[in-house]
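Anyone opening a protein record will find just a pair of labelled lines. With that in mind, the following record should read easily:
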Amino acid sequence: MFLELLDFHSEVHKEGVKTLHMLNTNIELFWNLLRLGKVDGQEDPIVDWSQFFNVDDMYKTIYVLQIVESFLNNDYATLDQKSEEAILRSDWAVRFYNKGGFT
């Protein structure tokens, strides 16, 4: 219901978008996207892109694109370079491309 309010081009829309940006990122979605579907002990899996990009859910797709943008634009130099997040972010764009992202 909250996301439906964003359909209105009004002050409610503007305030709703600001509120969404203040919320924490969905951690499960964040890690699934960062890992591109890979879980410990699994070989390089085929990514089910529909779990991230659903043409029937515009708001989730926009949300996922914002997470993708954070992977591409945010400086991760402040992270411990040996952490899983830093390692995965360092080559995320290449892995995304190689797995058929945006094709």
